[in-house]
Amino acid sequence: NQYYLAQTRTGLTNARVQPPLGPEGMTVWVGVGGSPESVVRVVRQDLRLMLAIIGGDPRRFLPYIDLYKRACAQLDKPLRPVGVHSPGFIAATDEEAREIAWPAYQDMFGRIGRERGWPPTTKARFLAEVEEGSLYIGSPETVARKIAATIGDLGLARFDMKYTTGPIAHVRLLDCLELYGRKVIPMARDLLASAKA
Questions:
Q1: In this predicted structure, what is the pLDDT of residue 18?
Q2: Spatial separation of the C-alpha atoms in residues 23 and 39, rounded to whole Å
Q3: CATH assignment at residue 138
Q4: DSSP state of 111
């Protein structure tokens, strides 16, 4: 748009926004958490769909991907890549990752749950999400396998891991990032390449 009418700041007219967005600028992904209307809005705006999956089996989002594809066809919009954004944490072993992540997860989801009227989370529920749901928590091997499975099952072009789920020591977060970049991503790519071969 050439105009921005604001309620809390001065409006903009013919102003250049940095960084530029769209075809000549930064790629825009829109996070959607499970609303069909939001999926269709992404298509109408001709943007990329990023499914924000924070709980349950990621495959339960397949209907949203199907809706996205149908809406692109019906609205004569190009089919753009689809991604997933989910929480995770990586440590040397599955046990270590779970023990570090659980208190932070409990703190964050307890707070969010109170705001949204959810029941308190339990460690059993947390472990179920780690095993079968949308928490990518564990050793590099475990997390790489789970990411590759999600990408394959949903036909994704991108996977973003939110690695700061609640209060975790900075040094632990740095270790997590290093394991993600040096081990998880290459392993997940290898698993996906092997599956295509």
A1: 79
A2: 20
A3: 3.20.20.30
A4: H
